[in-house]
Each structure stands twice: as structure tokens, then as C-alpha cells.
């Protein structure tokens, strides 16, 4: 940065004394302007405003300058060089707004230079702080621009992702399925879908992609696309993979490995058959396991299986659970465990069961019992799917 | 915000005068502390530092205070209340660092209050500016945290996306295919792939998803997955859609509509058959059309077709172009046109042809002739794929 010279204004009606002062300060490297009267300040262009004024001034002149300089930022301090005729004269000069007073009689150059140095120090501090403030303001507006741009991008991504989720509060006969999803950032690596298969069967899956944000959200697009294709295939009677949770997991596993995104996921997939009164499901390392409530008690479903998209040779088993009337199934992502206040995973599981037992199983009731609305920060994506059968 | 009281320190060895001053300022709402000597300042806790000091002080006392207060920020100004025995005495007091001097003899209360007001105004401005600066600093660090978080997220997404692109500089016999991609943000809506089909056939496609950033990048995952599946199908001999560019476009069209992301794209897909010496291609509203160079001249390929993912009833035609020895095909996204300096689309097309004619057709040469490295801002994603046949 080119530091422009500091600018002094010398006001002195005596041209000899004025000339001497100009020379003295110019020799020190200052840019010096001379004026005969304070009023000539008024004609000075804004970009030539002095940093400090040194003047042989009477109190009235000082008062005029003080008024005139009032709106300036920074306000140039006025050092008065005067013949101190009396103590009252000096006090009056100070009261008029002089920043300092130095005797012009038998002029002590050191005293004058020191007075100037004291005022310049203040002016420099002010300017420095102003420059720093302006730098900060520039940084804030630049960061804000970049943030707005990235946030708009993520919001657009989020809208697309939300479009892929099933409708909230769907009913399939007596079965109600509902969900909530709280991404840690804008985009989520948690994903789920549920769909009508035929008059007595409903399919659903729940996946939690490793990581979170944009890179994980990519994988959810694949999931949606694959489950769409499998649903289409059964309508066209070209494949019934969608009826077999273990095949759905195997398909996701192989397509994920083939697309080679470097991402894997945990998954739970199930089919509810209201005619056979049976839940058939398959587990791809999903944790925590879904909670199953039979109308009397709630417990975690049994079963295990490998993560999806890690190993080509992964095989998935099918598990079954008979469906008592009025059953419910609560599936959550492990993001929920990160906000459950318990010291260990076992304790978190116990706490989750306790909360689910103590509450109704609509999404609203679950959000409330897990206090999801009170979360100020969400370390990992949180999603809940609730499947309930009404008795009436 | 609770504005704490401003704090004055009164230094006066005369307890009657000190008591009177304390009472006077306390009545105005200030918090006032009294001390008998300047040195007692040294024992004052940091959080009880005065905003302004008013003291009956000799020049030596002022000088001591000036030294002592030097490191304070802000430095409390010292208003000296004194018996002005001589003009020299006042000037000496000022030289010692007093901010103002008021006569204690026949004390003019208004003069004292005015002197205090002048100093307080400076102190308040300083504090206000410091608070503002601190607010700015907090905002900067908060914005930086959020930016870092979002950027890390986008970078992770970008890594996944880059993994989906084909290797740079692939060779299929005498055919070399290479590319470059410059996203406007981190994630790109431009996507392409090229792949070996059999000994004499190479397939490729180039797509530009509407919009840019995360939401558009989602769609590129679908494209990659679909083309992977079609390549797998031909290996398994279950479908030869991948050999027919018009079927590839139709498949993308229907899957995009089915997945219902609210996104469409423009696309160009082709098959190079080096045995039949024929390029077969299909166009999904891709613009600008690829440039075809036959070793003598370069021109845009002919053909048109509907955007992909907008209309269920879209049908795509096949076009053919014989392949002379040493041909090349340059495919770009319309993001390139946004940085070509020409007044109309026609002029941009002419400029593009001119540049391609004037240059070699490796990616390095094309990046250089289009000055892609010199771009300071990229309004829309830019991608170039270059397919060239070597003669030797």
C-alpha cells in the first residue's frame, strides 16, 4: 500500500512565522499547507483535509474551527500556538476546543513537535482502526455473497431431494406411514421410501448413506431410481425383486459397487402383508434396529446383515415377524442416537425403547418425545419413519 | 444490551473538594471513584478502569498517569482541575499529557462539565467503534465457519462426481478421447461418459442438466447409473439399447420423468464404428451441436431432437455421418458460449468454428484456444470432450 504523506495545515496571519513553520514541518516529511485565517479551511477540497491543524489562533478562531470541523471524520485536532497572555487566555483557548496549546513566545520546538506527535498518534490510530474496519466490512460482504451462493445451491439440491421422498402421512388401508427428516446440513444422506404394491402389500425401505451432505445425497438419487425401476418391473411383470427385501438389498449393493461412488450405506427393507399378517424384512447393517410394538410392549426387531455397497459377495437373509392387530414399527437413523443423552450405545437403545413405549407413535408424538424441535445443532442427519396400524 | 454506567475517577488529596466532586458527578449518573493520589490508579482492578480521570494534579502527577495509562485501550483522558498559578504551569500540565485543564479557583462548573463532555464523547466514539469492530470480527468468523463447512461438503460431493467421470486421455485403438470440466461452483450439471463396446465400437454421450450445482449434479448420478446398466446389459446380452443412441436418450427421458426430480437435460449420444467408418448419433436438444472435422474443414453436425426429461412422448431420431480418416469431434456444453465474446449466438457459433479450425484438437489445445485457464469467473459449467482419430 502506498502511504500518502500526512497533511498539516498551518494557520498564521504572520507570513514570516507561517513560512518558517511550513518549512519546519515540510523538512520532517509532512505535506504542509499554509493559510492566513481559519475561515480559509472552508475552501479546502474534501480530499485535501488536514490531519492536524497548527495555528496561531485566538479563542474565537479556535471556536469557529471547532464548529466547522465537527462533521469531519476523523476531526482534525487543533494545536494552538499562541502568545499566552494570561492563564485565562489559555483556559479559554482550551475551552474553545483546542487539543493542545504551545507558547509561541521563545518557541520551544521540542514542545511543538511533541504536541504534534501526540495528536498524530491519535489520528493514526483512528485511521488504522478505520482501515481495519473497512477490511472487515469487505470480508463480511464477500463471505456473505459466497455463503448466499452456496446456500442457494444447497437449497435447490434440497428441494430436489425432498421431491424424491414419499408423501407425508400416507394411508394404505388401515396402515398409516409417516416420516420426518432433519438434515445436518441442507442435503441428507438419510433416505426412505414406501409404496403400495398390491391390495394387501406395502413395501418400504430406510437407508443411511455413509457421511452426510451432497456426496451422500447423490446416493439417495440412485436408491430412488432403483426402487422406482423395481416397482415398474413388478407392474410390467418383468421382475418381482421388489417383493423380496433381500433382493432389493442385493440390487442396491451391486449397483452401488458398479457406480463406484466410494459410498456405502446401511439399510432396512421390509414388506408388510396385511393378508398373511406378516412383516418380511432384510437388514443391511442398519443401526439402530427398528422398534416393533405389538400393542403390549416394544422391542427391537431381530436380524443382521452386511453394509450395502461395500462387498460384492454380500448376501442378505430374510426375517419374518407376525403382525398383531394395531402393531407399529418405528425406524430411525443413527443420527437420532447422536442427540440422545445417554453414556453408551446400550443406554441409548434402552432410552429409545423407553421413549417409544412412553409415547404415541405418530410422527408428531415421536418428534416431541425425542425433542427434535428443540435441537439447536444436528450433528448427523436424523430421520424417523413410523408405520402404524389403526384398529378401527 | 445493558449499558453499564460510565466510570469517572476523581483524584484529589483534599477530601472536602474530592467529596464535593464525587457528589457532583454521581448526581449526573456516573459511577465515581475517589482517590487521593494518582498512584492509587495502579491498584485499580482491570474491570474497574475509569473512562475519564478528573484530578487536581501537578504536572509530575499528570506525567506519571500518562506513562501508567499508556498501554490502556482506550487510554482514559485526564482532565486537570488546578489552581493555574502561571501560564507556564498550564502549558507544562498540557505537555505532561493532560487532555484538558480547568481552573479550580472560582470553579466554573459549566467549564468542568463541558471539558468532561468533550472527553466522554471521544471515549464513547472509541468504545462504539470497538464494539462494532468486535461484531464484525464475530460475523467474519461465523461466516467463515459456515463457508468452510459448506465448501467441505461441496468438495466431498465434487470428489464423488469426479469419480463418475471417465478416465482422462483414454485410447480405443486409433481413437483418443479426452475431456475437461470446469464447474461454475463445485458440483457440475455437465456430464459425459465414453466406453468401449466391442473391438470396433466406442460409445459416448454428453449431457448438460438444467441449472447447475448440487441439484443438477444429482441427475448426473442417474445418467452414470443408467449408462452403466446399459453397458452391463449388452455384456449379459439382455438388451442392446446402448448400441442405439436414440434408445439411450429415450431411456434417460423416461427414467428422468419417472424419478420426477423436476430436472431435464440436453444430450448428445453417439456410437463410433471404426469398421463401418460411421458415426451414428442422436440429439436431445444439445446446443451447440458438436463440431465435426474431416481433416479438411470443421462444421457443426446436423440434427435435432427434444430436450430429455421433459415430455413422456419424446422420440429421438438417429443420424449418421461417415468417418473420414483422421476425423475429430469436439463436444462442448453451452457454458462455453457464455464466455465466448461475441454479440449473438450466430456470432458465437462462427467464433467457435473459427477457434476449432485454428487449433489442434487435443484438450490442452482446445483449453488454450478458448482461454479457459484465464477465466476468473465461470457463470455456467463448462465441459469439453474431444474425440480424435490418429492417422499413424
Overview of the structural elements:
The structure is a homodimer of 392-residue chains. Chain A is α+β, with helices and mostly antiparallel strands. In chain A, a hairpin with a 4-residue loop joins β10 and β11. Chain A is rod-shaped, with a radius of gyration of 39 Å. In chain A, α2 runs parallel beside α3, α4 packs parallel to α5 and α5 crosses α6. Chain A folds into 2 domains: 128 residues, Rossmann fold, CATH 3.40.50; 224 residues, Phosphatase 2c, domain 1 (4-Layer Sandwich), CATH 3.60.40.10. In chain A, strands 6-7-16-15-12-13 form a 6-stranded antiparallel beta sheet, covered by helices on one side. In chain A, strands 2-1-3-4-5 form a 5-stranded parallel beta sheet, sandwiched between helices. In chain A, strands 8-9-10-11-14 form a 5-stranded antiparallel beta sheet. Chains A and B meet through α3, β5, α4, α5 and α6 of A and α3, β5, α4, α5 and α6 of B.
In brief:
The structure is a homodimer of 392-residue chains. Helices cover 38% and strands 23% of the residues of chain A. Chain A has 392 residues and is of the alpha+beta class.
List strands and helices in order, with pairings.
The structure is a homodimer of 392-residue chains.
Chain A: E1 7-11, H1 15-26, E2 31-35, E3 52-55, H2 59-69, E4 78-82, H3 87-95, E5 100-103, H4 109-164, E6 170-172, E7 175-182, E8 190-198, E9 201-209, H5 214-235, H6 245-259, E10 265-273, E11 278-284, E12 291-293, E13 298-300, E14 319-322, E15 328-332, H7 335-338, H8 345-357, H9 363-369, E16 382-389
Parallel strand pairs in A: 1-2, 1-3, 3-4, 4-5
Antiparallel strand pairs in A: 6-7, 7-16, 8-9, 9-10, 10-11, 11-14, 12-13, 12-15, 15-16
Amino acid at each position: 500500500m502506498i502511504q500518502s504523506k500526512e497533511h498539516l495545515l498551518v494557520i498564521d496571519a504572520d507570513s514570516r512565522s507561517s513560512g518558517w513553520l511550513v518549512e519546519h514541518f515540510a523538512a520532517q516529511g509532512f505535506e504542509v499547507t499554509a493559510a492566513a485565517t481559519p475561515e480559509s479551511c472552508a475552501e479546502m477540497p474534501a480530499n485535501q483535509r488536514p490531519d492536524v491543524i497548527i495555528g496561531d489562533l485566538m479563542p474565537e478562531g479556535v471556536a469557529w474551527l471547532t464548529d466547522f470541523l465537527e462533521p469531519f471524520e476523523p476531526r482534525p485536532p487543533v494545536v494552538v500556538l499562541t502568545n499566552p497572555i494570561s492563564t485565562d487566555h489559555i483556559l479559554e483557548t482550551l475551552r474553545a476546543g483546542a487539543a493542545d496549546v504551545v507558547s509561541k513566545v521563545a518557541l520551544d520546538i521540542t514542545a511543538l513537535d511533541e504536541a504534534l506527535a501526540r495528536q498524530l498518534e491519535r489520528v493514526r490510530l483512528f485511521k488504522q482502526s478505520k482501515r481495519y474496519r473497512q477490511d472487515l466490512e469487505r470480508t463480511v460482504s464477500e463471505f456473505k455473497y459466497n455463503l448466499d451462493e452456496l446456500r442457494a445451491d444447497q437449497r435447490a439440491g434440497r428441494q430436489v431431494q425432498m421431491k424424491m421422498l414419499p408423501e407425508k402421512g400416507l394411508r394404505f388401508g388401515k396402515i398409516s406411514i409417516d416420516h420426518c427428516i432433519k438434515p445436518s446440513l441442507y442435503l441428507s444422506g438419510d433416505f426412505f421410501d414406501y409404496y403400495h404394491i398390491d391390495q394387501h402389500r406395502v413395501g418400504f425401505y430406510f437407508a443411511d448413506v455413509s457421511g452426510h451432505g451432497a456426496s451422500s445425497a447423490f446416493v439417495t438419487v440412485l436408491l430412488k431410481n432403483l426402487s422406482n425401476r423395481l416397482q415398474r418391473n413388478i407392474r410390467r411383470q418383468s421382475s418381482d425383486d421388489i417383493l423380496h427385501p433381500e433382493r432389493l438389498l442385493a440390487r442396491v449393493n451391486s449397483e452401488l459397487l458398479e457406480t463406484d461412488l466410494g459410498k456405502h450405506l446401511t439399510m432396512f427393507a421390509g414388506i408388510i402383508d396385511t393378508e398373511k399378517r406378516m412383516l418380511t424384512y432384510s437388514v443391511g447393517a442398519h443401526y439402530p434396529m427398528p422398534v416393533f410394538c405389538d400393542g403390549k410392549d416394544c422391542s427391537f426387531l431381530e436380524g443382521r446383515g452386511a453394509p450395502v455397497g461395500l462387498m460384492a459377495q454380500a448376501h442378505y437373509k430374510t426375517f419374518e415377524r407376525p403382525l398383531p392387530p394395531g402393531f407399529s414399527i418405528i425406524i430411525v437413523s443413527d443420527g437420532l442416537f447422536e442427540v440422545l443423552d445417554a453414556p453408551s450405545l446400550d443406554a441409548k437403545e434402552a432410552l429409545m425403547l423407553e421413549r417409544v413405549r412412553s409415547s404415541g407413535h405418530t410422527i408428531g408424538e415421536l418428534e416431541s418425545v425425542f425433542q427434535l424441535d428443540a435441537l439447536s445443532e444436528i450433528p448427523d442427519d436424523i430421520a424417523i419413519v413410523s408405520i402404524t396400524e389403526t384398529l378401527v
